[in-house]
């Protein structure tokens, strides 16, 4: 197997540690294809052959999704298609996209999304947030402001969720994601002030209560979803902690900022010898390398922690998780969606590239794009929602756009 070629500016001692780590990371989990790519240079014929194929595949994915996808959330519905169209518009990929069409998809989807769903990925706040940003791009300010208002009104529903509903996919942290997305996309950090405080407080209160009820777990902030302590980005601590990191002032007011850092540190201490993370507390099978469960979903948490705390240890963790994804992220039995696939895993490389500027991570993303292209038809059949963003070909399309325009990112 091709070992990591190294990080720019890396010392000989650090490189030795990384090589030893990589050998330990090569776990036969039965789920990935051995990675034999040479990441010291870009794939052969990248510009002349692969890039044109990528552009063609993006168009094919969008056309198929336009025909087949049902109205619904970012996860499996039309809002996911609207998100891809929006990113194409923002990233200047040469493609005939009309934002008016993306807006119509969101409007239709918002009408049928269950009122019980409040999050960015699975709920109506995601549809409203997208509508606000698209209207902003179209310079329709009144409709933009109305969508922002409608998104903020959903805070009441988020606050009334069951107290244990705190994770990203279905819980309070997932609603806060919509606020963060609006703040970033509209360049307005004041959006949601007066709304987020209560929800952050609810999450922290539940985390402290969970910690007191489960002292043996060692977390100052502890959360469960369906009676299980998940650790990853979708349902678990990594996702919740990352959202809370975006609200430093609120955490300080609650005197919970120290608890958050302690929680992150304890979470990272639970990694397997391979460098991968368990899917849940007490889970000893080292098999999942995904965004939802495993190393790929921990990269964004560590990069944000590095930015917030200026602690190089978090950057080291992020790079090591990136190595795990490089070694074990070419999934053989998963489709193309962002949740669990080679394309979804490779989003971690793009995050690392944007954070560090190291071309190694971009080259690794390029090789994963090559793998996805080569296996596109075969892998596309392995899901019941083959045209969606988080479980289907739109996930690959979003990743491909990121590879072509790595400075662009749809997610915060």
UniProtKB/TrEMBL annotation:
The record, for Gene3D superfamilies, names: 1.50.10.10
Which residue intervals make up region (Disordered)? 25-45
Arranged from A to Z, the UniProt key words for this protein are: Metal-binding, Zinc
Q: Which residues bind Zn(2+)?
A: 292, 339-340
Q: Which GO terms describe its molecular function?
A: metal ion binding
Q: Which InterPro entries match?
A: 6hp_glycosidase-like_sf, LANC-like, LanC-like_prot_euk
What GO CC annotations are associated with the protein?
plasma membrane
What does the record list as GO biological process? Answer: carbohydrate metabolic process; peptide modification
Q: Where is the signal peptide?
A: none
Entry-linked SUPFAM superfamilies: LanC-like
Query: What stretch or stretches form a coiled coil here?
Result: none
Family under the similarity heading: Belongs to the LanC-like protein family.
Q: PANTHER family this protein is in?
A: LANC-LIKE PROTEIN (PTHR12736), LANC-LIKE PROTEIN 3 (PTHR12736:SF7)
Protein's UniProt name: Uncharacterized protein
């Amino acid at each position: 197997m091709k070992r990591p070629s190294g990080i720019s500016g890396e010392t000989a001692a650090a490189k030795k540690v990384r090589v030893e780590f990589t050998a330990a990371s090569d776990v036969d989990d039965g789920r990935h294809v051995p990675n034999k790519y040479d990441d010291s240079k870009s794939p052969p014929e990248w510009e002349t052959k692969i890039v044109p194929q990528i552009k063609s595949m993006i168009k094919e994915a969008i056309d198929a999704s336009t025909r087949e996808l049902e109205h619904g959330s970012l996860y499996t519905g039309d809002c996911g298609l609207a998100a891809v169209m929006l990113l194409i518009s923002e990233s200047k990929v040469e493609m005939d996209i009309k934002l008016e069409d993306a807006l119509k998809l969101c409007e239709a989807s918002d009408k049928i999304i269950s009122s019980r769903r409040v999050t960015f990925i699975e709920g109506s706040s995601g549809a409203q947030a997208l509508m606000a940003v698209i209207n902003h791009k179209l310079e329709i300010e009144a409709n933009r402001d109305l969508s922002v208002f409608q998104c903020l009104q959903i805070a009441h529903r988020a606050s009334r969720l069951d107290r244990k509903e705190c994770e990203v996919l279905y819980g309070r942290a997932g609603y806060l994601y919509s606020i963060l997305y609006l703040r970033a996309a509209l360049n307005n950090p004041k959006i949601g002030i007066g709304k987020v405080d209560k929800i952050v407080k609810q999450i922290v209160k539940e985390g402290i209560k969970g910690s007191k009820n489960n002292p043996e777990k060692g977390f100052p902030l502890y959360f469960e979803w369906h009676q299980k302590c998940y650790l990853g980005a979708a349902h678990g601590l990594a996702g919740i902690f990352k959202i809370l990191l975006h609200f430093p002032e609120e955490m300080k007011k609650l005197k919970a900022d120290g608890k958050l850092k302690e929680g992150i540190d304890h979470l990272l201490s639970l990694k397997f010898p391979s460098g991968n993370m368990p899917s849940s507390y007490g889970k000893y099978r080292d098999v999942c390398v995904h965004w939802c469960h495993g190393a790929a979903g921990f990269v964004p948490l560590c990069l944000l922690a590095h930015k917030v705390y200026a602690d190089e240890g978090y950057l080291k963790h992020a790079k090591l998780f990136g190595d795990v994804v490089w070694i074990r992220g070419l999934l053989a039995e998963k489709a193309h969606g962002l949740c669990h696939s080679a394309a979804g895993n490779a989003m971690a490389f793009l995050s690392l590239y944007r954070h560090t500027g190291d071309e190694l991570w971009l080259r690794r993303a390029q090789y994963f794009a090559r793998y996805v292209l080569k296996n596109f038809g075969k892998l596309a059949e392995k899901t019941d929602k083959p045209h969606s963003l988080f479980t289907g070909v739109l996930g690959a399309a979003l990743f491909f756009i990121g590879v072509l325009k790595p400075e662009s990112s749809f997610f915060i």
